[in-house]
């Protein structure tokens, strides 16, 4: 029905996260309505992604070999937050509440999809933990089965290490009611944990 | 927070229809996870959009100057469906119920956004109507205020034309309950029109 130029691009956009063929089609028509100059700018910006690397220390995307956080001398080197993806790091940075380091795993253990711990940057993490002054490992992974299994896997590995298990405190970010949530609709696990972790006011 | 390469592309994707900054961010991370070869293929496909033109007859996107429908000698030249956008043409073609011609307006009259009839290919439409054997004009525009105003505007113009008003029958696609719709939740206008247009079974 479509010429192959259009169809190929619809197929490419259909691979984007959360995008089905209908939206992919809308994207292509959007680009067709732009003139070739507008598309050229988009293409130039796409090409610039080749200048983006994975930070060799934490795994964050960066235009330098070592990202701006790992380069920053003012960050606390005693704390490290473990996240799954770079966008999780960005979300935490936006809170302005944290001045320590990060380690990006590059995913979460997902046994259903056969995505095991060997695919994550866990080896790199332990190299960092063994050769630094890190005192606290803070997990900030999704509250999902995959997130919880990944926490468990890494915590077990830390506990089995004689030195690390002594020197490092392991924590995870609190579970509770998000801003604007209604108690009536909260699930029992969240509400139960929010109750256990209640804070003096 | 992001390097400018990433931020620029997030801004570009945020302009895509229905895409906010969060999804735009996911798109960029998706592209970063592809390797540069994968991105290169995407860029090549994007560049090929420069080979796509507006059909000089109906306004459909095409890799030829005249699109495959307008070139097709087997299409009925007595009927023309008026649609707003090329994707509407595709939706109608998919039904397999229509073998006539099309005319793409390139939008709908939207007085709120100051998008007037002069921005649509209405002049071209009347040139086509005047110089052809078209016997029926079928409107297939969205069931919205914009769609209805556009129908009204064009119908009035046809009625004012002494020759066209005599030679051309004007229709619009039926309004009714879509497949799977529940009567209980149908709006009164739709249900009222579906009742008026009831068909013998």
Structure description:
2 copies of one chain form a homodimer. Chain A has 201 residues and is an alpha/beta fold. The first copy, chain A, folds into 2 domains: 4-51, RecR Domain 1 (Helicase, Ruva Protein, domain 3); 71-172, Dna Topoisomerase Vi A Subunit, Chain: A, domain 2 (3-Layer(aba) Sandwich), CATH 3.40.1360.10. In chain A, 45% of the residues lie in helices and 10% in strands. In chain A, the strands form 2 sheets. Chain A has a 4-stranded parallel β-sheet with strand order 4-3-5-6. The termini of chain A are far apart. At the A-B interface, helix 1, helix 2, helix 3, strand 2 and helix 5 of A face helix 1, helix 2, helix 3, strand 2 and helix 5 of B.
Question: What's the quaternary structure here?
Answer: homodimer
Low-pLDDT windows of residues of chain A:
none
| SS elements, strand count of chain A | 6
Number of helices of chain A: 9
Number of domains of chain A: 2
> Widest sheet of chain A: strand order?
4-3-5-6
Largest sheet of chain A: 4 strands, parallel
Helix coverage percent of chain A? 40-55%
């Amino acid at each position: 029905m479509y010429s192959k130029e259009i169809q190929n691009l619809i197929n490419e956009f259909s691979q984007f996260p959360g995008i089905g063929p209908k939206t992919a089609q809308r994207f292509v028509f959007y680009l067709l309505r732009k003139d070739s100059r507008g598309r050229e700018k988009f293409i130039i910006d796409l090409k610039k992604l080749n200048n983006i690397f994975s930070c060799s220390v934490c795994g964050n995307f960066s235009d330098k070999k070592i990202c701006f956080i790992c380069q920053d001398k003012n960050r606390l080197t005693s704390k490290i937050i473990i996240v799954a993806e770079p966008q999780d790091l960005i979300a935490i940075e936006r809170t302005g509440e944290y001045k320590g380091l990060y380690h990006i795993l590059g995913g979460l253990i997902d046994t259903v999809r056969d995505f095991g711990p060997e695919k994550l940057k866990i080896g790199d993490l332990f190299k960092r933990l063994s050769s630094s002054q890190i005192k606290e490992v803070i997990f900030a992974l999704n509250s999902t089965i995959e997130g919880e299994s990944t926490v468990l896997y890494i915590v077990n590995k830390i506990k089995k290490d004689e030195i690390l298990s002594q020197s490092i405190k392991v924590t995870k970010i609190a579970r509770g009611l998000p801003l604007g949530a209604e108690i009536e609709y909260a699930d029992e696990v969240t509400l139960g944990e929010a109750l256990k972790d209640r804070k003096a006011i």
